[in-house]
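Protocol step 4 of 6: structure prediction from sequence.
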Amino acid sequence: MSNSAQIGVTGLAVMGRNLARNFARNGYTVALHNRTAARTHALVEDFGHEGDFVATETAKEFVEALERPRRLMIMVKAGEPTDAVIQEFAPLLEPGDMIIDGGNAHFEDTRRRERDLRGQGIHFVGTGVSGGEEGALNGPSIMPGGSKESYASLGPMLEKISAKAPDGSPCVTHCGPDGAGHFVKMVHNGIEYADMQLIGEAYQLLRDVAGYSPAQIADIFRTWNTGRLDSYLIEITAEVLSHVDAATGKPFVDVVQDRAEQKGTGRWTVQIALDLGVPVSGIAEAVFARSLSGHADLRAASRELVGPRAKPPGESEAAAFADRVEQALYASKIVSYTQGFHEISAGSDQYDWDIDLGAVSAIWRGGCIIRAAFLDRIRAAYDARPDLPSLLSDETFAQEIAAAQDDWREVLVAATRQGVPAPGFSAALAYYDALRADRLPAALTQGQRDFFGAHTYRRVDREGSFHTLWGGDRSEVEA
């Protein structure tokens, strides 16, 4: 078989199929392979007119169809299936070849696989791909890790198939070595969870406190999407809220069970943040909100608990409240991105990845689920100050939060008084207030820990660790 294909894709479910078509549409010859050969041939039959494909049925044929250095992209389920595919193809490859994992792998698995294959001279490129099936076909945001050598060969191809930001730049950057790409994609998904939770809370507040219908809320979201909240998620929220169920004539959101599912990346974001000691409370609340929604029996048993009932206001008051919700949503959104970028920075330091936060924000401007207009400003903030400790340290964002905080607090007062849960808004404001506080109750916490466990504490007036002898005269000793 002629080794004419510039890239090969194995695993031709929706994402793999669409990425293969994307490569072919952009002028590359694409080798195809799937565990079930019928799916390979169906792709060629249905979409062969879009470009040059080489259909193969065996691993050996697939590898032989690729030009050197071979670029082999895996699009199968994360975990053991990915390991199985690697074990099948690695023995057929040669030093300098590369295996690209485009699935939602855990970054620690990617680090292990990269380390193992490096010993064989094979480059392993853990690559985050965001944008769903539409993005895979028409241009996703792409977050590759791996060696610089592999990116020199693969990068131009990824740049060509990627989404393009409003300024025309490709939405792809080399994130860093080994697991950096999958780590960045993981945090992207964590921010996505928080973003969706905040939007959901805004919807519920507009409905239960302001008394608006789903169709009216859709119009509000469309208005918001023309301003600073301009984003893909706000755009599709308006579409979902305006949709009417054909079978019942009811708003679509009223016929869907209120039990949200998750695939794990948001949960990973929170777990790894705990390991790194990074507070991502907004993302955590979004993950827990989905978990809570799934406990149907617990919720049913608790539905009659005493609490206030919302009382819709008058028309002008409702409109004013909607404006306050917009402020609260925007401020909370800034906090969510602040926490996400903090985790990326901490991960970069922990694993020596040297991730460019400005470049990451730049590639999220197109193709991905969290693409939003204000990412341009985040990029500018990090470009101006690569050592920026927090987005809240940026003067412009700090001013916007300062302008929003009164309305933000009023929204949470209304939510509390009327019994509408807003854990995302609440967590974001608590994080903001904790950062700006002169003193935190952690001093008391350290005193308690020293009392029951002799865990020691540090003083504000001199260096060193100390322990108080609590059971006797309570004298202090240096630990």
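Step 5 (inspection) to follow. Residues 243 and 252 are 6 Å apart (CA to CA).
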